[in-house]
Design a protein that fits this description.
The radius of gyration is 20 Å and the shape is globular. A 7-stranded mixed β-sheet has the order 1-2-3-4-5-6-7, with helices on both faces. It has a single domain, classed as Gcn5-related N-acetyltransferase (GNAT) (Aminopeptidase). The N and C termini lie far apart (49 Å). The chain is α+β, with helices and mostly antiparallel strands.
Length: 241
Amino acid sequence: MKVELPTPVSTEKMEIDVRDIEGILQGAPMNLPPVPEATITLKDGRVLYIRPIKDSDIDPMLGYLEKVMKVEKDFYDIVGVRVYGEILALRRKRLKDPFTMVGLVNGEWLGFANGRVWDKDVAVSLHTLTFSRRARLGWPMYYAKTYYAMELLGVKEWWSTFESYNGWRMAGLSMAQPTKPWPEFQHELGGAKIFYLTQDMWQGRVKNYIKEVIGQDMNFNVTDEVRKANENFRVPETLDL
């Protein structure tokens, strides 16, 4: 928008270094603890390895998600589109204080979970996505990011929303998450209802959730053998959704 100047100036045109603009557009990051590695043995006996996302993962993940976003079933299309944007936003630095995890079985990408820090008191769950049916991967993936928020970040509240019925059953119902009054409180994902956990709820009952569902706790003592088995990241060859 151009507005006439109220006084004469010596320079009417200025060059701006876009690095200065980036410093304005990109929020200053918080000092977040690293996302830990973890393993858990699934019901079918396979070992799920959860680790933070790497930049080298991004291109193959985006390519696979281009297929996922075309699946018009169980809300995979809308979730696929949104996850694509969230992963790309990591590279473009357009997501405030994110934490992103991938779940691998022998190097194959079968699980995804992410969220971000709203402020020192609240962390927001974004998406949990799995690519192997009947393996119950969603439970440990969602739990891993909740654990990170509640235990390592130490936030007072964890806010989620659920786009699919399966997602709500897995975490909203199973964790007995109540909702904030709507529409006074809205989740950033489309203004949906906010489901939430407090520290009291987490410490009192939900912290044992994964052991109740899977039958064991997360193991944060990852062996070199597991790392070796998962060192070559690859996306699934087919869609098993």
